[in-house]
Amino acid sequence: MSWEWAGGRMDLVPGRVLQVSLGGKEAFWAAPDAPDWNVGGDRLWLGPERDWFWATDDPNDLSGHVVPAPIDPGEWRTISLAMGHASYAADPVLTHRGNGSTTQVHIGRDVCLKYADSRRVIYEVHTRVEVAAGPPDQEVSAWSVLQVPAGGRLRLDLAGEWAYRDYLRPFDGRRFTVRDGHACVELPGQFMAKIGIQPDVVAGPMRYSRDGVTIERVIEVHPDRRYCDHPLGADRSGQGDAVQVFEDDGHYGGYAELEHHSPAARYAEPVLDICRTTVSLGY
Predict the structure, then answer these.
(1) pTM (2 d.p.)
(2) Taking the CA of residue 53 as centre, how many other CA atoms within 13 Å lie in the half-sphere pointing to its CB?
(3) Can you give the pLDDT at residue 199?
(4) Residue 256: is it exposed, middle or buried by C-beta count within 10 angstroms (0-12/13-18/19+)?
(5) How many helices (H) and strands (E) does the chain have?
């Protein structure tokens, strides 16, 4: 499904915004012919990653990391579809790779086109996650993942003192420039690394610029609420991360990811995540 207007286009597949194009320039990384999960775009995963994805405690052993099919590609149902608004739903059953327990999740996901012309498009994604059944202490987060072409510059707005933690091999912190309430970094796609940033550090807005295209994401961050995604080996009773940045070195296709998590959902305690994305030509 594509929404088209003079000078622009949004491509959608169930549960995901696959591509945004303005003036003939495509903003997102996408590989629609990929044979497995890695098709790109603006998609939804579910956290915590170490519960559903990892079968090992070694972050350098990628053979122990598998994207569960119920999460991606998932089995999405189209509830409604019209120009400017799409609603999807899914009901994955997640299997904990550590203890084998299962968790039933209900997901609702709405994509709303807010503005579009030949130089700018704005859309919002509203994601609702509800834990319907499973262990009473099991947490689940809406994990939004936007894949972008490598080679751009990322800027994160800060709400507190800059700090991050590593999920894979150590990220060279000297690559970041921190000043005037922002942390900035180039993501050339030469390294494989992932960092997480806690909710008292980030303010919500993030901006990625490359090749005359700028992507701005605004998310809701709740420092007073529980986040549940942590690096392998971290104390999971502590606060999790709200924002994450992944840089691929070509192993998975060569891209970067702007990621964020909702606060944790639990049984009878659903969460709603709202993310506004603006794609524009120029910096």
Answers:
(1) 0.96
(2) 21
(3) 98
(4) buried
(5) 1, 21
